[in-house]
Amino acid sequence: MRYHSTRGGVEPVAFRQAVMMGLADDGGLLIPERIPDARDRMDAWRKLSYIDLATEVMRLYIDDIPDDELAALVEQSYRGRFPGGVAPTVPVGPLHILELFHGPTLAFKDVALQFLGNLFEHILAEDGGELNILAATSGDTGSAAIHGVRGRERIRIFVMHPHGRVSPIQERQMTTVLDANVHNLALEGSFDDTQRILKAVAGDLAFKRRHSLGAVNSVNWARVLAQIVYYIHASLSVTAATGAPGVRFSVPTGNFGDILAGWYAMRMGAPIRRLVLATNRNDILARFFKTGEYSVGEVHGTLSPSMDIQVASNFERYLYYRLGEDAEALRDAMDHFAGGGGISVPPESGVVDTAFRAGAATEEETLETIARIHRDYAYILDPHTAVGVCVAEKLQGESAPTVCLATAHPAKFPDAVRRATGRDGLAWHKRIAELENLETRSTLLPATVDAVRDYIVAALAEVRA
Length: 465
Ligand SMILES: *Cc1c(COP(=O)(O)O)cnc(C)c1O
Known about the structure:
Strand content: 15-25%
Radius of gyration: 21 Å
Bound molecules: pyridoxal-5'-phosphate
């Protein structure tokens, strides 16, 4: 399988190159040259364990890693790393909750980043070389990335967070990792400052090349690929358990990376009837699927901060298919968008895409959903998952069983749970509680490009000495 750019400016590359490239060199996103049709395999796949299914699904997209090595990578990523299971589905009243939060940082991003860490190390070990990852985080991605690459020999990670402006739990999930290859940089500035610095440092191509700088952001194809697996796994197990021909997934959405994986699973032939796209007040994507208009608004802070996004980086992949796989049309649309304009895809007979339905949840609705699900079923939702449950309930009227993705463990967001239920201590997890007593390490730096660049150069010189 070869990968090409949505913008058409890159010679097709093999999977391993696509992984190491991350963002395509022409500024586009890498996509597989075709989507494998796996309709005929679904019955056989129903009998597989999560790990075996992951290997089978990934094999269809990867032909430059031998089968036994790929199986070992999958095994290493998931066996023993997710104590409650990688992606178990639990019934909660009429809903099926797909719990994706059993990994090291208790958020769904672990499913992809555990695999990506192993994949990077495997490719670097064979091809030689090293990778220095620079990331900026307002919370979840940074810690999941750190836990994906901690302790690796050929990888160093530098994660910038705005000092004092991420939640204490999220900060501790990052700064309690003491491995020598992990560098937490607390910048004296805002999240926007960290992003500005990331762009400046990563945009300096000479510096980037000299120091083998890479990224782990959600545009990496391997992250989407790892996420396709749980949509297939859950749709097969819920259709088997209920006898229904297909399921409806509800997905709390920010950067469109997670729900895009669901769309690929659907196109591959998994028994999926519909994808419900759920956003908080930052509803650019929900508006698109209702009207066909994609235009940016202002970012608002909410109870579900990992979805406080206006420009969804993975949306470009979907838009490419929606525009008839026409790289030129896509390029024009993205240029227009970058210039401050909107993108318009006219709905056909009233709907933009029958695969999707979309909606948004307000802050009040999010809290009300947490309270009600707790009262009725003694199950605690985190605020991101609550957005998905709320929107799924608002958009009823289909007979397919509803599978709601639980993207974070509620113990990561105790304040929201307290506000919703009026009770303390409901959202508890041993691993979060234990963070209190662990040693931390981070470096406080001024929020300037030079300070970050100097830090990286000095740290790498030390490694090489
Ligand atoms: C990142 C994240 C999301 C949004 O996922 P996207 O792939 O960006 O759409 C939702 N919930 C939680 C808890 C997250 O960390």
